[in-house]
Amino acid sequence: MYPLLEVDSISKKFGSLIANDNISFSVSEGEILAVLGENGAGKTTLMNIIFGHYLPDHGSVKFNGCNISIGKPREAINLGIGMVHQHFTLAENLSVLENIAICNQSLLGISLDFGEIEKKLLEISNNFGLSVNPHAIVSGLSIGEKQRIEIIKTLFGGCKLVILDEPTASLTPQEVDQLFVIMKSMVEAGLGVIIISHKLDEILRISDRIIVLRNGKISGSMEKSEFNKSSLAEMIVGKKIIRPDKEKCVRAEKFIDLRGINISPRVGSALGLFNINFQLFGGEIHGIAGVSGNGQRAFAEFLSGHITPDSGDFYISGSLVEKFTPEEFMNKGIAYIPEDRNSDGVVGELSILENGILTEIGNPKIRNKLGFLNKKKAIEFVTNICENNDVRYQSLFQPVRLLSGGNIQKFLIGRWLERDPEIIIACQPTRGLDEGAIVAVQKLLLLERNKGRAVLFITEDLDELLDVSDVVSIMFDGKLTGPFPSDKLEKRDIGLMMTGGNVS
Prior knowledge:
- It is a single chain.
- With 504 residues, the protein is α/β, with parallel strands linked by helices.
- It is built from 17 helices and 20 strands.
- It has helices at residues 43-50, 73-79, 96-104, 114-128, 143-156, 173-188, 200-206, 229-237, 296-303, 326-331, 341-345, 352-356, 375-388, 405-417, 435-450, 462-468, 491-498; strands spanning 5-14, 17-27, 32-37, 58-63, 66-68, 81-84, 161-165, 192-196, 209-214, 217-223, 254-263, 273-281, 284-289, 311-316, 319-320, 334-337, 423-427, 454-459, 471-476, 479-485.
- α3 packs across α4.
- The longest helix is centred in the middle third of the chain and has 16 residues, at 173-188.
């Protein structure tokens, strides 16, 4: 019997960049195949070829034993190939039923039979354990519930192969368990599944087979009987991964002291912050856990001077803060690594050099005696940032958007560290990064902590949270619980508190 999907000698170039180089693999019915690799390894390009966003320059794709040429996603969907992207594409103001309907029927001159659509939706829901309320408004659902809708959308049209892109990125441990039950029900029904993820423990738990991409080529593969985390990590980055040691922290000065902080919800924000009492100490990494949308972003923006509170007191190193501006907070020694590095951290069309000096306009290190920008000094300044933080680039004059996600993040952190901050607000600093880049970012943050800096570490990755943090607080519905010593916490307890539950 032929495989469900056969990819044979696929190659794809963008200018001089070889994204995929002679890649061949297959996926069978009832199989979960994991595709792993560093940022920039070619995973996204490969999946976009399978799903019809790109045509390959060379090679062929077979589906159900037939040669296919997929020119656009609709053709892939009609063949039975579905893709659930990391960032959902749901209409938040519509119901679950309405979202399913508009994605699976043409609205031009056709009267939608919502009764039949609901009947089929519930049938799929029951068959695959995808529990949803068809009449619930999407904006009020959890991340896990929204993901189920995306999966139902792919199955509604008779999908035979499902591609899941970073499906557990924002899920609690309980929601991950539920997702894995759903995936097992899918393969039991004869579907093939491709999963892309950076979470090795989860991949080893759920996959039947693994292939690894590096520099556009397949660098190795593993069958379930061969699974080994350290070997897999080495296969991904091409060298042995040495994880940073977390030495016992030595708590130092209290840098931040929040007393009764309240912030009203802003336009475009679902939540404010309510009665926040919080302390951040030097020599310590304070982790903040929470499901996306519970106030973490507002908290980070407030701590970096972007939001003025409605009430409460904010002390930095014992002094009451009266002026809330990003510039004022920068001058007080606060560095802010934003959640969205591409939109809020860098200006994509500007060069690496220009982005490197954006926050340093008044810095004498890059100016001459008359106060004018000295290009030679600026180049030296930004070169040092890149070299000291292992940022890999071709030219300082290339647009920063051409860097991989990991290199952009290391560049951002390095730019801030050049200012020698006392306080580092790191919001989702490893989201979407590969294993090597994650370790590099963790090492940078731990090094600063060991220098006596205060680090606030906001993440949805609970394994990383416990590995890196000294103490942990949980944010739910705009309120903080904790802190708790990280070595006294279990992942499942954190997951429960992240959804408003109490730990006995």
